[in-house]
Amino acid sequence: MTDWNDEVDVLVAGSGGGLAGAYTAAREGLSVAVVEATEQFGGTTAYSGGGGMWFPCNPVLRRAGVDDSFEDALTYFRAVVGDRSPADLQETYVRGGARVIEYLESDDDFAFQMFPWPDYFGAAPKARTDGKRHIVPAPLPAAALGELATSVRGPLGTERLGEPQPEYLIGGRALVGRFLLALTKYPDVSLHLNSPLVELVTEAGRVVGAIVERDGERTAIRARKGVLLAAGGFEGNDALRQRFGVPGTARDTMGPWGNQGRAHEAGMAVGAATDLMDQAWWSPGMIHPDGRAAFALWFTGGIFVDRDGQRFVNESAPYDRLGRAIIERLDAGSMSLPYWMIYDDSAGPVPPVQASNVPMVDHEDYVRAGLRYSAATLPELAERIGVPAGALVETVNRFNDFADRGVDEDFGRGDEAYDRAFSEGASPLVPIRKGPFHAAAFGLSDLGTKGGLRTDTAARVLDESGAPIPGLYAAGNTMAAVSGTVYPGGGNPIGASVLFSHLAALDMVGR
Ligand SMILES: Cc1cc2nc3c(=O)[nH]c(=O)nc-3n(C[C@H](O)[C@H](O)[C@H](O)COP(=O)(O)OP(=O)(O)OC[C@H]3O[C@@H](n4cnc5c(N)ncnc54)[C@H](O)[C@@H]3O)c2cc1C
């Protein structure tokens, strides 16, 4: 028998979307302990500048008069995800988000805003090309959180570059901050930093608690109702990435350092079935002088070329689709890293990347690090970056011709709504003509892995036979993603983490 050091109804491992589970359990009258592996709350969720959630037909959208339906949203989701995740899980996700927002909005600590963000497969049936399935949390003044404010992870500029803490929490930080604020109002909630869950404790096939390391000591916490693993992905663990065949590296992931897959391992050790373990939320990564490729989006110009000086993708496509195109090329051996963004001098030597997530530092630092080159002519630029000059000139000429005609015959750049989201509907094809010409180095980044423990629609973890493991729940990037091998729309990762954490807590309440 275990010697318990602590006892609660619900134990939550991870403080990103998992806070939705902690909050729900507390609000429904259960005692809760949140254990967070690192020195700050929030995980990758707190890195998100948007904190967007893809929750069709939710009350925020309904109030704004959006004429969507769950059926349409489900048609879209099913069309793009296919059978790579269970149909009932997909339906739960698509229909469930609206209810969770209703639940949160009935507490004054929460507020959300519509933030149109086109679905990522604009040509799929019932895609919402006006982006009205996406909401973000309202900003929160840091002062509202008092001392807790410095315990919220991020933003990336503060963490990686030492920029000052902003006075407002926005995006994912606002979401995390709002959950923390709400949680402090419940007496039976304890929040623990530097406390990784390392092992699950079972009795007669049921998960009854967990071992958590605190200050290097093993602490046994009994969880009467259950344990929720919402500990993110294993993107920060190169050994696990290799074991499961996840392209890319821990160096180039956006996940915070604590996302090492220990909760995945704890789940597998008690018999949890897994799925999608080679999958991540991908993106192109701008390589910064610290040597790390970081998730970048919102390109207002430029083209990507491979080592043959050829374009290989619609550069304005959603980042996960870009990432998958890069992986395909790498797998086929027709590309090596870095590849290059080629752009002209219309906006100066800094690449036309409007959202680098990790703020760009001084241009000269990139030049010194061999990550940016400039030249008066394209052939000279080609020589500097080691691609065939004739091919690069031909590629740019062909692209300029497409730009002049407003049609990308090779990769369809501009064909879908998302491609035009950052140019106010105008063509994203911007000719490359004004010298000097520039090249910026890019790699492969990811927003985290998305393979994990298989769950049912109540977020109960399943064993290999498909039966729930009593007392064990998973959500977010610790669960096998409801979105399978695609990224249907901005707001899926955080949405799935918040919703399935919430549903896990409700299930525990009911038991
Ligand atoms: C710049 C950026 C912008 C993004 N924008 C969006 C967006 O707008 N919308 C969207 O949906 N997605 C977005 N994403 C992706 C999204 O942020 C993540 O996929 C999502 O937040 C993951 O949530 P999670 O709860 O699964 O994990 P996380 O938020 O990563 O939280 C996991 C937490 O668990 C902790 N942990 C790990 N192991 C243990 C353990 N053993 N015990 C205890 N704690 C542990 C970690 O330290 C971490 O704090 C963005 C990502 C980035 C990088």
Automatic annotation (TrEMBL):
- Cofactor(s) recorded in Swiss-Prot or TrEMBL: FAD
Gene3D superfamilies per record: FAD/NAD(P)-binding domain, Succinate dehydrogenase/fumarate reductase flavoprotein, catalytic domain
Q: Does the keyword Flavoprotein apply?
A: yes
Give the GO molecular function terms. Answer: steroid dehydrogenase activity, acting on the CH-CH group of donors
Domain named FAD-dependent oxidoreductase 2 FAD-binding is located at 9-493
| Gene Ontology process terms (BP) | steroid metabolic process
**Assigned keywords, A-Z:** FAD, Flavoprotein, Oxidoreductase
> InterPro entries annotated for this entry?
FAD-dep_OxRdtase_2_FAD-bd, FAD-oxidoreductase_2, FAD/NAD-bd_sf, Succ_DH/fumarate_Rdtase_cat_sf
Q: Does the keyword Lipid metabolism apply?
A: no
Q: This chain belongs to which protein, by name?
A: FAD-binding protein
What organism is listed for this UniProt entry?
Answer: Nocardia veterana
